Automatic annotation (TrEMBL):
Chief location bin: membrane
Single Gene Ontology BP annotation: vacuolar acidification
Annotated region described as Disordered, given as residue ranges: 1-36, 53-77
Full protein name: V-type proton ATPase subunit a
Membrane-related topology note: Multi-pass membrane protein
Coiled coil: none
Length: 915
């Protein structure tokens, strides 16, 4: 159908900063650019939807598409369903409504990933930036990089990305300065007026220039202040050395010296100093150089002076006392004041060069005490002035940092968003006219209507003359995997994704791991006392959820907080299994009634040797507490837990094989059902399913048959007589049949599938299979580059080797995986025995003493051993073993895990990273 489009204003070319054109009243879809987009769509043989909006009315979703175009799928609405609604909504109600009950139940969101589609977006130049910004706020579209062959510096918006990186550097500089100054910055500032990126860039430049200037001035003043402090210290120490040698000084002079200078003087050489000073330089030729040096270099400095002057010098030093701020590095170091006496100009030049090489700071100290006092007073006065100046500068700098810190978080987030927008725009391509940007991306089917609304809003707000074209594309690429999770299921999904992200629409093991993972953990950790401790920890994390989510946590606490609901279920199942094992910190309790056994005599003296007598019905729930401490306790519990482990393992592996059937059925893969699911199910249950059946029969009948003997001789002597190991009639014939089925299942898995695939490939691509001819030039099969016309090269050798490896792995894995589930028994036994050792050897041993101190010490040691070893190390061990059972023994039956995760362009991830 043809439609008349009104003529609008011409399109503006895309500038580097994507300017917004002036407001216009032309409706979306008008202007010559729309015809250009239609031609582009026609050239690419894609179906386009043009959306027309009325600016005076609320934006519509879409208008009715042309008859030749296919309708876009809409997301399923998921209202809250009740049984009454389902029955009433059915035609005729009553019986027909009840029959359609299960058909209208909402689907399981987590069993398979969300349905995805590849979409193409054609942005006009003036609305591209705003549209990408709105899509980032929505966070439901993952863009594909259409410029993978280009380096970052060859992309369109490289200059904008550089500007954002420069602003990010300035913001990082502000953050470092705020942290260094100890100024508190607001994490969530008050609402401030919106600021444009250009204004922000100018403001950041002004703030940086101001801070750099203040830092430079402050650094210069601080260096001068530290140099004056050193000068004052040298005047004090060196002046006291010189003053101590003046035996002819007046009493008043000595009194002033005591108030100004310290008395740390080496008195052994007073005569030499007195002679050199009072004779004067012109008479004796003795001169001196004073300064300050690092204390660690003083000894090497003295030796170097002695060797250079060949001993014609006298070195005197005095410790500076407290650490001194070094003028060069600004760090507090320990230093020593020195005075070097020498004779001659050449010696002076050598000494000054050595001082410079050792980093010593030399300061001029006059010989006359009067001049020393005068300089001392001047230095003290200058230090006081500098202190006032530095304090004023620090206050001014802190105020400037506070004004920046109040908006720092908002600016950082704004720059990160802007950089993310331009990084996304760099993933798009210009069309041939250089007036539109073309992008591709993945989005969930349910999000298409939301994306359309966002694009319409972007068109309105940018005053664009041409609407944004949004349509679905045909592709052979595998879509990303996306599950909508909440705070409860997210941790279980992360556990599965740590093994590997599932393929698109592959069955999600996390649905079953929600129950099986904490349950298998509890089988190994079963103690309802320890389970209560875990439960208290999980409840603490859950009840303080809001507070902890807003804080910055360390790595361990963050990991525990993220898995708080996993810990909750692990604790609940541990309490349940602990009640079955009847262990509370290894101590049994008569919770569900009295024991079924009693002593033969009232004294119970022969209970350990002769055993107990059954006097009533079996204990109603869990292990009878009378087994505790008995001679047969360990053999009984070992047999029970070992058989339970095999039953759980075989059940979970069968569940994995059944899930492979549902997966193959969903993807309509009959080959996998016939030549993978059926033989695998037969092989596993012919051997270990039969073993599980024998275990159940033995439990129910109380037979004394040796199951080890039965399984071994099932292979060694299938036709032999079972004797006392026979559990039911026809057991020998059933074992022969099961053994034959297991042998047949191996070639059934190995050979048919590769040869059938080879035959199907030949028929499909050599003209032996027929298909309908295309009725139009838009038929997808007629396109040379369409998804249906392309296929990968079939390599029979690779397919056969892959099938052989898979079959061998399953056959060997059926044995090894079943044996691997025995870790449930081993770790449960280890946990129980370790808990018993701590209880008996620590708590009961300390409780046997009459001293209160011994009892307290024993209780404290028992509590720490329980907390750090049983609740810490043992829980971690059980967690890792449960993880391995799911990753290897369970998930390898049906889960490929070679997909890739859906990572939409979203600003929410930027905010989370910043937090």
């Amino acid at each position: 159908r043809r439609r008349a489009w009104p003529t609008g204003q011409p399109q503006q070319p895309l500038s580097k900063t994507l300017p917004r054109p002036p407001s216009s009243s032309v409706s979306i879809g008008s202007g010559p650019g729309s015809w250009q987009q239609l031609r582009t769509c026609a050239s690419q043989r894609i179906q386009c939807r043009l959306v027309e909006l009325d600016r005076t009315e609320p934006p519509l979703r879409s208008e009715t598409p042309p008859a030749s175009s296919l309708p876009l799928p809409r997301p399923r609405s998921r209202p809250s369903l009740t049984l009454a609604n389902l029955l009433l909504e059915a035609p005729g109600g009553g019986r027909s409504g009840a029959m359609g009950l299960f058909d209208r139940l909402p689907p399981m969101d987590h069993l398979r990933s969300e349905k995805m589609c590849l979409v193409q977006l054609i942005f006009p130049a003036e609305s591209a930036r705003l549209a990408v910004t709105y899509l980032g706020e929505l966070g439901l579209l993952q863009f594909k990089d259409l410029n993978e062959d280009k380096s970052p510096f060859q992309r369109i918006f490289v200059n904008q990305v550089k500007r954002c990186a420069e602003m990010n550097r300035k913001l990082k500089f502000f953050s470092d300065q705020i942290n260094k100054a100890g100024v508190k910055s607001s994490v969530r500032p008050a609402l401030q007026p919106e600021i444009d990126l250009e204004e922000l860039e100018a403001k950041l430049g002004e703030h940086e220039h101001e801070l750099l200037e203040m830092n430079t001035n402050s650094g210069t003043l601080r260096q001068t202040y530290n140099e004056l402090l050193e000068f004052k210290l040298v005047l004090s120490k060196a002046g006291s050395i010189l003053a101590a040698s003046q035996n002819h000084a007046t009493p008043a002079d000595h009194e002033l010296d005591e108030h100004i200078y310290d008395k740390e003087v080496d008195d052994g050489n007073g005569y030499l100093l007195e002679q050199g000073i009072h004779q004067g330089a012109s008479e004796s030729g003795v001169r001196f150089v004073s300064g300050i040096i690092l204390k660690s270099k003083a000894l090497a400095f003295e030796r170097m002076l002695f060797r250079t002057t060949r001993g014609n010098m006298f070195f005197n030093e005095a410790s500076a006392g407290e650490p001194v701020m070094d003028p060069s590095s600004g760090e507090e170091v320990e230093k020593t004041v020195f005075v070097v006496f020498f004779s001659g100009e050449q010696a002076k030049a050598k000494i000054l060069r050595i001082c410079a090489s050792f980093g010593a700071n030399c300061y001029p100290v006059p010989e006359e005490i009067v001049k020393q006092r005068q300089i001392f007073r001047e230095v003290s006065s200058r230090l006081s002035d500098l202190e006032v100046t530095l304090d004023a500068g620090t206050q001014h700098r802190n105020k400037a940092l506070e004004s920046v810190g109040s908006q720092l978080w908002r600016w950082i987030l704004m720059v990160k968003k802007e950089k993310a927008v331009y990084d996304t725009l760099n993933m798009l391509n210009f069309d041939v006219t250089k007036k539109c940007l073309v992008g591709e991306g993945w989005c969930p089917i349910f999000a298409k209507s939301q994306i359309e609304d966002v694009l319409q809003r972007a068109t309105l707000h940018s005053n664009s003359q041409v609407g944004i074209i949004f349509h679905e594309m045909d592709t052979i690429d595998s879509p990303p995997t996306y599950f909508r999770t909440d705070k409860f299921t997210n941790a279980f999904q992360e556990i599965v994704d740590a093994y590997g992200v599932g393929r698109y629409e592959e069955i999600n093991p996390a649905v079953y791991s929600v129950i099986t993972f904490p349950f298998l953990f509890a089988v190994m950790f079963g103690d309802w006392g320890h389970g209560i401790c875990l439960l208290l920890g999980a409840l603490f994390l859950i009840l303080r959820e809001k507070k902890l989510s807003s804080q910055k946590l360390d790595s361990f606490t963050e990991m525990a907080f993220g898995g708080r609901y996993v810990i909750l279920l692990m604790a609940l199942f541990s309490i349940y299994c602990g009640l079955i094992y009847n262990e509370f910190f290894s101590v049994p309790f008569h919770i569900f009634g009295k024991s079924a056994y009693a002593c033969r005599e009232n004294s119970c003296s022969d209970a350990y040797t002769a055993g107990l007598v059954k006097v009533r019905d079996p204990y109603p729930f869990g292990v009878d507490p009378s087994w505790r401490g008995s001679r047969s306790e360990l053999p009984f519990l070992n047999s029970l837990k070992m058989k339970m482990s095999i039953l759980m393992g075989v059940s979970q592996m069968n569940l994995g094989i059944l899930l492979s059937y549902f997966d193959a059925k969903f993807h309509k893969n009959a080959l996998d059902i016939r030549y993978q699911f059926i033989p695998q199910l037969i092989f596993l249950n012919s051997l270990f399913g039969y073993l599980s059946l024998l275990i159940l029969i033995k439990w129910c009948t109380g037979s004394k048959a040796d199951l080890y003997h039965v399984m071994i001789y099932m292979f060694l002597d299938p036709a032999g007589d079972l004797g006392e190991n026979q559990l039911f009639w026809g057991q020998k014939e059933l074992q022969i049949l099961l053994l034959l089925l297991a042998l047949v299942a191996v070639p059934w898995m190995l050979f048919p599938k590769p040869f059938i695939l080879k035959k199907l490939h030949k028929e499909r691509f050599q003209g032996h299979s027929y298909r309908f001819l295309g009725t139009s030039e838009m038929d997808p099969d007629s396109e040379p580059d369409s998804a249906r016309s392309r296929h990968d090269d079939f390599n029979f050798g690779e397919v056969f080797v892959h099938q052989m490896i898979h079959s061998i792995e399953f056959v060997l894995g059926a044995v090894s995986n079943t044996a691997s589930y025995l870790r449930l028994w081993a770790l449960s036994l280890a946990h129980s025995e370790l808990s018993t050792v701590f209880y008996e050897k620590l708590l009961l041993f300390a409780w046997g003493y009459d001293s209160l101190i011994f009892k307290l010490v024993g209780l404290i040691v028992f509590a720490f051993a329980t907390a750090f070893i049983l609740l810490g190390m043992e829980s971690l061990s059980a967690f890792l073993h449960a993880l391995r059972l799911h990753w290897v023994e369970f998930m390898n039956k049906f889960y490929h895990g070679d997909g890739y995760k859906f990572k939409p362009f979203s600003f929410a991830t930027l905010a989370d990273d910043e937090e």
